[in-house]
Amino acid sequence: MLQTDFLVIGSGVAGLSYALKVARHCPDRKVLVITKTQADETNTKYAQGGIAGVTDLERDSFEKHIEDTLIAGDGLCNPAVVEIVVREGPERIREIIDWGTRFDKDDEGDFKLGKEGGHSEFRILHHKDVTGRELERALLEAVARQKNIEIIKHCFVIDILTQHHLGFLITKSTPDIECFGVYALNLQTHRIEKILARVTLLATGGNGQAYRTTTNPKIATGDGVAMVYRAKGRIENMEFIQFHPTALFEPSVSPCFLITEAVRGDGGILRNKFDEAFMVRYDPRKDLAPRDIVARAIDSEMKRTGTENVYLDCRHMHRDRFIEHFPNIYKKCLSIGIDISESQIPVAPAAHYSCGGIKADEWARTSIRNLYACGECASTGLHGANRLASNSLLEALVFSHRCYLDSVSAVQLNDFRTDIPDWNAQGTTEPKEMILITQSLKELQLLMSDYVGIVRTNVRLQRALKRLDLLHEEIEALYETTVISPQLCETRNLITIGYLIVKEAQFRHESRGLHYNTDFPLKSDLLQNIVL
């Protein structure tokens, strides 16, 4: 059994910035960060474009950024939360610069600001085309200097500890469900450990691996959302899965290499197989329309022309400036025989970001006491029906800070619950055939991509739900009878994610933002978040 004052699940920008702040504020308290692979293997690491923030008040304003976010969110943003994030964001950005993050600057020493889809001004701070990697580097170095932070790598969290583990019947209507810590499989000792905590933060990232084609790394399996749902916590807006319009098209390659939206912000033009700049037919903002509109336009063009991809034309762009701003994109394209100054880049949409997740309030508190959620796994009300480009890192920083402010008080009130039983593996055996797990994952990814993608119908959603019911039944039987493994738990979590996406998509009888159902092509007048 391990005990810690602050337990952080996940080592991306949300988890690390929170850990750093509580550790500095409470130097006599222990902070434990758990990550299921290497500490830097997170969704944060793969964020290319940058972080949105109003840092130039002469040309930009908070009001403009707020308006852009509300428009992208298609009526479902929480306006109070949008204002909090936009207005508090610049101070959080200054903090990460103080911690050592290096954003690109021009010859005069001013930040180079980019522009992406849905933004009315240039306000994206970036480090080349690897902003997330740079932010992760700075945070890990800062955390390493903090003596009361411990990081346990290769440790897979299985479940949240609540009154359920004390033998009580817990339902969604049970008042005051409480988190006492987690059960976790330590892959280095091969033991399932009980970790007790006064305060727990879930910063577990996204769930892109529910789809066959995604920009997310293999670790993005929706673990935090699935655990909270099993613990009877509140989940909302899972139907809003953002497909990034421009992932590099390489058949059978997953995760996909992302071609950041900033390329279109710098002048890249989408074209179909006939070399037509087609976005002019779909939105007056053309290639800089919000992601939901661009992704649906590309999907429409591919279906209309019978192709598997469209093209991003950068041939007219200044070659040296492209290489300076997007060195990794240039290098990646060159590695597969594409010189961006001579050839167009084949692109297609890929699952990229979950706008819904664990329902969290303006202090990152979930519906379960002593349990917080930040980053992509949380649904704070910022994104609504569609996330504005480069708002995700900003949200993570703002809410991890607010979580820190709230939880340093909460940690003083909580004691460890030491009567939680140890993990009981009695009666389980080693799996005889791993194909039972790997094939279930393939089936899930296939049905989610085919039935619950960019465009949906009632029939497709119903088919998906029937198949998910069978997959759920099969994986639960394996979970009850076989020895726990990360592969089994991740597949189990992803099947839960698939169910939540489909079920909430069925409840939404309209098309709004990222959820487009051809049986409900119009928005309704009733604006609501769907909670399970």
Overall morphology: globular
CATH topology title of the largest domain = FAD/NAD(P)-binding domain
Radius of gyration: 22 Å
- Report helical residue fraction: 25-40%
Number of strands: 19
Question: End-to-end span in angstroms?
Answer: 33 Å
Structural class computed from helices and strand pairing = alpha/beta
CATH class of the largest domain, please? Alpha Beta
DSSP strand (E) fraction? 15-25%
Q: Which consecutive residue ranges, at least 5 long each, have pLDDT under 50?
A: none
| CATH-defined superfamily of the largest domain | FAD/NAD(P)-binding domain
In DSSP terms, counting alpha (H) and pi (I) runs of 4 or more, how many helices?
A: 13
